[in-house]
Q: What sequence folds into this?
């Protein structure tokens, strides 16, 4: 009989969103007349922008004619999109070669798939709280995970500990769930640590387009020598509303190389290329055309206009926290507001209080790791009216 991968037994039940759904549905049954406002969603709500839709339509038309029809495309992505991404980085001060950019169907799959390139013997450093994909994919492979505490004391931005050795390091900035963003000096320390430990940083920048403070890095490659030790994952999901359309990109610099045990030279860029050409057949042409529209001047303006709407919602939430004197993180350069549960409550108890008393649904911090136990995540992805009403209701908890 085939032996199953028993590492799956070590996965924690992923019950966060199902438990939320269960509690909400029980409430709805008991109180059908009460209107619930959802500020727990990590998904975008605004439709794709005009340029993107135009580009998608014209790509569909191309598929209808024999002379412009496209079959299999390059697994790494079409040149038009790789070059558009390269130019985007250049505008942000980062020089990349187009063959360091791999177009993907989103950051979730690639942050998981990248584990294919690394030995199971590696030790992995992961913050707590965290986007659960990093933990689960490494658990599936059976790697040793060391957690680093992200707490209010370090602003939810853990820094390297010279006494701890790691081989793979996951960083997410702007962070989900905490909204915290590393500054340049902090990322410099991480790059220094990675180089000193021969480690690789797996940098998730899925929320980079929410950064408005120009002094904060939007890419790990804003840091000197990061190309020698960091892979970056990015996505159009939150930048341009592609959560359902699916497109992202992963940067694997050619400078990350290593001598193998048999003395041969190994390059992560070549390995990822080999992995992708073996296991992936590329992102649909139509989607890549839509994605390329995001990187045009007009497309970028439209994406930024969408982000400003989410930002205004984030401001409504953070203004409320300011008024109530509640400690929070994120919100300015991120769509997430991560606040300390009031009344000394734990996050699931506070979830129940919000649901029962004001019918506002958020996400209990405990669902992202033990350090989230007394914190709570609200998102800016609902509309302005609902966000404002939710916050009016929130204030009544304190009257
Ligand atoms: C930190 C982080 N990385 C990656 C993703 C997934 O992005 P994608 O839609 O590109 O798969 C998310 C989605 O919520 C996320 O929060």
A:
């Amino acid at each position: 009989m085939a032996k199953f991968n028993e590492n799956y037994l070590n996965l924690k039940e992923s019950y966060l969103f199902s438990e939320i759904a269960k509690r909400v549905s029980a409430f709805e049954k008991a109180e059908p007349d009460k209107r619930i406002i959802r500020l727990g969603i990590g998904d975008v709500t605004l439709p794709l922008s005009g340029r993107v839709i135009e580009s998608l339509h014209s790509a569909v038309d191309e598929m209808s004619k024999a002379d412009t029809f496209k079959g299999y495309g390059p697994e790494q992505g079409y040149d038009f999109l790789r070059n558009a991404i390269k130019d985007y980085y250049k505008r942000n001060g980062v020089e990349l070669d187009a063959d360091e950019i791999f177009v993907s169907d989103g950051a979730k799959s690639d942050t998981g798939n990248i584990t294919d390139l690394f030995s199971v013997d590696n030790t992995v450093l992961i913050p707590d709280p965290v986007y659960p994909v990093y933990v689960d994919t490494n658990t599936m492979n059976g790697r040793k995970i060391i957690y680093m505490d992200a707490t209010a004391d370090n602003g939810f931005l853990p820094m390297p500990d010279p006494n701890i050795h790691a081989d793979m390091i996951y960083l997410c900035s702007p962070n989900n769930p905490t909204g915290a963003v590393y500054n340049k000096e902090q990322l410099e320390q991480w790059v220094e640590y990675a180089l000193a430990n021969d480690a690789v940083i797996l940098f998730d920048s899925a929320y980079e387009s929410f950064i408005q403070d120009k002094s904060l890095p939007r890419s790990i490659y804003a840091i000197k020598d990061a190309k020698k030790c960091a892979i970056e994952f990015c996505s159009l999901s939150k930048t341009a509303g592609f959560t359902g359309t699916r497109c992202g990109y992963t940067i694997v610099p050619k400078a990350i190389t290593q001598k193998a045990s048999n003395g041969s030279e190994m390059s992560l860029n070549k390995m990822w290329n080999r992995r992708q050409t073996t296991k992936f057949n590329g992102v649909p042409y139509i989607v890549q055309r839509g994605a390329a529209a995001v990187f045009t001047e007009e497309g970028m303006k439209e994406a930024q206009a969408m982000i400003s709407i989410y930002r205004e919602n984030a401001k409504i939430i953070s203004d409320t926290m300011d008024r109530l004197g509640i400690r929070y993180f994120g919100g300015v350069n991120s769509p997430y507001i991560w606040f300390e549960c009031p009344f000394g409550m734990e996050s699931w108890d506070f979830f129940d209080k919000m649901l029962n008393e004001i019918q506002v649904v958020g996400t209990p911090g405990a669902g992202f790791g033990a350090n989230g136990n007394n914190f709570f995540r609200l998102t800016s992805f609902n509309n302005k009216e609902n966000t404002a009403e939710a916050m009016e209701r929130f204030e009544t908890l304190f009257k």
About this structure: Residues 42, 106-108, 131, 172, 176, 204, 206, 235, 237, 243, 248 surround pyridoxal-5'-phosphate (CB under 6 Å). The mean pLDDT is 97.
